[in-house]
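Hi support team,

I submitted a single chain yesterday and got back a structure, but I'm not sure I'm reading the C-alpha coordinate output correctly. Could someone confirm the output below corresponds to the sequence I sent? I've pasted both exactly as they appear in my results page.

Thanks,
R.
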Amino acid sequence: MTLTEVISLLEKQVNPDLLVLLDDGDCYIEHNLHCALNAGNGFLERRYADDRSVQTSQVLIGGYEQIADGRWQAMLLCSPEGNPKTKLLGSFSSRNEAIATLWLARHEVSCPA
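Hi R., thanks for writing in. Yes, this is the structure output for that exact sequence:
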Protein backbone atom coordinates (compact mmCIF):
# COMPACT_ATOMS: atom_id res chain seq x y z
CA MET A 1 0.00 0.00 0.00
CA THR A 2 1.21 3.52 -0.75
CA LEU A 3 0.95 6.71 1.26
CA THR A 4 -1.66 8.02 -1.19
CA GLU A 5 -3.76 4.85 -0.85
CA VAL A 6 -3.75 5.01 2.95
CA ILE A 7 -4.68 8.71 2.91
CA SER A 8 -7.52 7.87 0.53
CA LEU A 9 -8.80 5.21 2.97
CA LEU A 10 -8.75 7.72 5.80
CA GLU A 11 -10.62 10.31 3.72
CA LYS A 12 -13.31 7.78 2.73
CA GLN A 13 -14.24 6.76 6.26
CA VAL A 14 -17.99 6.62 6.55
CA ASN A 15 -18.09 7.38 10.27
CA PRO A 16 -15.99 10.46 11.05
CA ASP A 17 -16.42 9.81 14.81
CA LEU A 18 -14.71 6.42 14.59
CA LEU A 19 -11.83 6.19 17.07
CA VAL A 20 -10.12 3.16 15.47
CA LEU A 21 -8.86 4.67 12.24
CA LEU A 22 -6.95 1.73 10.71
CA ASP A 23 -6.81 -1.94 11.72
CA ASP A 24 -5.14 -4.92 10.03
CA GLY A 25 -5.83 -7.47 12.78
CA ASP A 26 -2.25 -7.22 14.06
CA CYS A 27 -1.86 -3.46 14.52
CA TYR A 28 -4.31 -0.61 14.80
CA ILE A 29 -4.32 3.16 15.09
CA GLU A 30 -6.77 4.65 17.56
CA HIS A 31 -7.45 8.34 18.10
CA ASN A 32 -7.28 9.54 21.70
CA LEU A 33 -10.91 9.61 22.88
CA HIS A 34 -10.17 12.65 25.05
CA CYS A 35 -9.31 14.83 22.02
CA ALA A 36 -11.34 16.25 19.15
CA LEU A 37 -10.83 14.24 15.96
CA ASN A 38 -9.30 17.19 14.10
CA ALA A 39 -6.77 17.83 16.88
CA GLY A 40 -4.92 15.96 19.58
CA ASN A 41 -3.17 12.66 19.24
CA GLY A 42 -3.55 8.96 18.62
CA PHE A 43 -1.79 5.68 19.23
CA LEU A 44 -0.38 2.86 17.12
CA GLU A 45 -0.72 -0.40 19.03
CA ARG A 46 0.17 -4.01 18.26
CA ARG A 47 -1.84 -6.93 19.58
CA TYR A 48 -0.14 -9.98 21.04
CA ALA A 49 -1.26 -13.10 22.84
CA ASP A 50 -0.50 -12.89 26.54
CA ASP A 51 0.67 -16.25 27.87
CA ARG A 52 -0.85 -15.45 31.27
CA SER A 53 -4.42 -15.19 30.00
CA VAL A 54 -6.70 -16.11 27.14
CA GLN A 55 -7.11 -12.44 26.24
CA THR A 56 -5.15 -10.50 23.69
CA SER A 57 -3.02 -7.65 25.02
CA GLN A 58 -1.70 -4.54 23.28
CA VAL A 59 1.63 -2.81 23.28
CA LEU A 60 2.08 0.83 22.30
CA ILE A 61 4.49 1.07 19.36
CA GLY A 62 3.91 4.60 18.05
CA GLY A 63 1.70 7.59 17.78
CA TYR A 64 0.85 10.86 16.12
CA GLU A 65 0.14 14.29 17.55
CA GLN A 66 -0.52 17.86 16.57
CA ILE A 67 2.28 20.15 17.69
CA ALA A 68 2.19 23.83 18.69
CA ASP A 69 2.75 25.20 15.17
CA GLY A 70 -0.31 23.30 13.87
CA ARG A 71 1.71 20.64 12.05
CA TRP A 72 1.46 16.92 12.79
CA GLN A 73 4.20 14.53 13.86
CA ALA A 74 4.37 10.75 13.69
CA MET A 75 6.76 8.64 15.71
CA LEU A 76 7.60 5.03 16.47
CA LEU A 77 8.46 3.74 19.92
CA CYS A 78 10.83 0.87 20.44
CA SER A 79 12.53 -0.69 23.44
CA PRO A 80 15.79 -2.26 22.38
CA GLU A 81 17.04 -4.19 25.42
CA GLY A 82 14.60 -2.34 27.68
CA ASN A 83 15.79 1.17 26.75
CA PRO A 84 12.83 3.11 25.29
CA LYS A 85 13.65 5.09 22.15
CA THR A 86 11.53 7.33 19.95
CA LYS A 87 12.04 7.49 16.19
CA LEU A 88 10.50 10.61 14.65
CA LEU A 89 9.04 9.75 11.24
CA GLY A 90 8.52 13.36 10.25
CA SER A 91 6.48 16.51 10.56
CA PHE A 92 3.48 16.86 8.25
CA SER A 93 1.02 19.53 7.19
CA SER A 94 -1.98 17.20 7.49
CA ARG A 95 -3.25 14.79 10.12
CA ASN A 96 -3.97 12.12 7.51
CA GLU A 97 -0.43 12.29 6.13
CA ALA A 98 1.02 11.77 9.63
CA ILE A 99 -1.35 8.85 10.30
CA ALA A 100 -0.65 7.24 6.91
CA THR A 101 3.12 7.55 7.41
CA LEU A 102 2.81 5.97 10.86
CA TRP A 103 0.67 3.16 9.44
CA LEU A 104 3.14 2.34 6.69
CA ALA A 105 5.99 2.19 9.23
CA ARG A 106 4.18 -0.08 11.71
CA HIS A 107 6.23 -3.19 10.90
CA GLU A 108 9.56 -1.40 11.48
CA VAL A 109 9.15 -1.73 15.26
CA SER A 110 10.56 -4.63 17.22
CA CYS A 111 8.32 -5.23 20.22
CA PRO A 112 8.25 -7.87 22.91
CA ALA A 113 5.81 -10.65 22.16
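A quick pointer for reading it: The mean pLDDT is 85. Let us know if anything else looks off.

Best,
Support desk
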